[in-house]
Amino acid sequence: MMRTRPLKVALLGCGVVGSEVARIMTTHADDLAARIGAPVELAGVAVRRPDKVREGIDPALITTDATALVKRGDLDVVIEVIGGIEPARTLITTAFAHGASVVSANKALLAKDGSALHAAAVEHGQDLYYEAAVAGAIPLLRPLRESLAGDHVHRVLGIVNGTTNFILDKMDSTGAGYQEALDEATALGYAEADPTADVEGFDAAAKAAILAGIAFHTRVGIDDVHREGMTEVTAADFASARAMGCTIKLLAICERGADGSSVSARVHPAMLPLSHPLAGVREAYNAVFVESEAAGRLMFYGPGAGGAPTASAVLGDLVAVCRNRLAGATGPGESAYAGLTVSGMGDVVTRYHISLDVADKPGVLAQVATVFAEQGVSIDTVRQQGRGDGSGEASLVVVTHRAPDAALSSTVEALRKLDTVRGVASIMRVEGE
Amino acid sequence: MMRTRPLKVALLGCGVVGSEVARIMTTHADDLAARIGAPVELAGVAVRRPDKVREGIDPALITTDATALVKRGDLDVVIEVIGGIEPARTLITTAFAHGASVVSANKALLAKDGSALHAAAVEHGQDLYYEAAVAGAIPLLRPLRESLAGDHVHRVLGIVNGTTNFILDKMDSTGAGYQEALDEATALGYAEADPTADVEGFDAAAKAAILAGIAFHTRVGIDDVHREGMTEVTAADFASARAMGCTIKLLAICERGADGSSVSARVHPAMLPLSHPLAGVREAYNAVFVESEAAGRLMFYGPGAGGAPTASAVLGDLVAVCRNRLAGATGPGESAYAGLTVSGMGDVVTRYHISLDVADKPGVLAQVATVFAEQGVSIDTVRQQGRGDGSGEASLVVVTHRAPDAALSSTVEALRKLDTVRGVASIMRVEGE
């Protein structure tokens, strides 16, 4: 039952992702038509540089007036792959108002204004899909939203930024320092000239907000996500991690509090046991580990970025939105019914690996242990090692049991006040156990 | 916008999976209602043994008359977790005819009669969902069918049977033989008293048929799947695998032929490089690796069986089917538009690891190499080793380049005719490269 009038699709942005979307829409037009039940037609492509040669795209479709394009009124779907907040946000809401559904890959916008955009979609009876916004090609939002719709997610633990995973993997496998590994990532095109969004965790934090919102049926904004970058991870940290049978990953962690009525979302580097499935995720790959009540431990793995992988996710959404349209229905929208409290970082409970430089003399361990006890942080293991360099200093590595982040912070503050503690060399959370 | 009239759900079967489904429907009723947009009510439970105590299920709902239950006419969804061909098939089609959609976990039935059941669903305007039929809790069919709907799948490589993965993992990690590992699996409850369906690959073959059908938009029946069990894998095979940097897994492999117009599906043990993401799948876990044109390499990992994990998949489908119902729509049904040819095993192209017992004298390697050349099978590496036991025998391990299975079979037949070849100790395919 093939409908012959094509569904009209506009493309906003024709860079790495957009050009792949256009290419696949052309080369696999027959497959898409068969899977949707109607042909899809590229009706317009909004670009910033109209003079650039775009192979396989009819020049007559190119326009610099994105606003006029989304206002045409005859569009079925608008694909937004511009990125950033504006003009993307206004173009999306304008598209809804003019009767089109939207497929977006825009994590920053969705993390910032997801609820408002969903509301606008509902107001105009349109769909808003954005599988490509998190973990590129990896089917993740649809499984979380639909496949696990009958389950109860406890925790989502994700490597959702390929650049930082590439850097950390290099540091782990070659012993390189951060700067050296970053330089290699830049040379190979895995890191941008300004890597801030990646290495400071902004990109991962946006994805964490989106994941937490979907996993816990609760609005989680980008400002709710505690964020620490990975620029201060050192080769020494990797040595410490290896001594514990761990590696170090930049993780996006979304989890329920112990009482079940609160959730938290955070991004920071963490030690992760080598036996954990995420520990084996190499190079620029992404993977998301989900722990839920009934399903248990699931992992989704794949390329988290790149033109073709991201286009795959965009086109999967395009097919879904087109099918919904032909059925006269819309897909599942925002689900925020649970309305759980979003905790601050102080309430997050996890384990810690703390390296201290201390005076190499008797009684230091007792002093340090007393501080931990006073703050209610229980110690799991301690490893003390004289430097043997005549400095009179030793290093003390403490791994704690689970404790609230606030308690750990007060512990560290108190430790810094001890005369015998010369410095806190590093503090790293230990996850995945 | 919560509808107050509940959706009525009947449960066929109340064993390990069914009782978990009923439990979650009760304990998480509020979550399910919020996610669906209407409450769901357990309207009846068909069982074989009505006298068994079933905690948390109102005894008034229990019936032994499954046929009468699915004919009630007021049901919205029937959940079939009986398994097997009959009476499951008749109950499902009866449910459709009486206005209910169906969620099933029945791989054997779907692999055998999936097309007919889909046709019956369409005829009556109902949904047929069966995420739980393949790889238990792992969201797999929905991602393949929906998330990758705009992509072009080349190959699906899966560990889809937990029992055999547990056995092979034990053999690999402990050096145990097949029987010893099977005994441990049985003692721990990972293998059934009669393990035939698992160890002979019947279970995996049913899943391969379902996966191939969805991945390639082509009808693939259970009889189209080439099936070899793993009962003949030996400790010596694992030693050979390790020497190649491989492990051995029972794989379900669905792939396109080189020309793109044919597909094949097969289940057999195979050597897999340790660097392949599937090689790290331990114990009874399942994982499915998907290679597609745009998305690249994806992997889905999780528990492949068990009451709660399977119930998670069933309930995800229940939520989807109920949402469709409230929207007055049905979800994507069977997609078989591509109608590709299903190749026999002879046309499958892969690599082979062959261990031969040969006479330990000059010229044998030349003879053997000639046979391979005559059959058009190109040799990648050869390793020759005298036994040193005075037997006058040596072992010869040949690893081939990619060749059609038929050519390999003729090669082996010709090798057996050589006087200098005392025996073919093992033949194993090498995948995942």
TrEMBL record, chains A, B:
Q: Which PROSITE patterns match?
A: ACT, HOMOSER_DHGENASE
The alphabetical list of record keywords is:
Amino-acid biosynthesis, Metal-binding, Methionine biosynthesis, NAD, NADP, Oxidoreductase, Sodium, Threonine biosynthesis
Its needed co-factors are: a metal cation
Q: Which residues form the active site?
A: K207
Organism domain of life: Bacteria
Q: What is its EC number?
A: 1.1.1.3
Query: Which family is it part of?
Result: Belongs to the homoserine dehydrogenase family.
Q: What is this protein called?
A: Homoserine dehydrogenase
Origin organism is Streptomyces evansiae
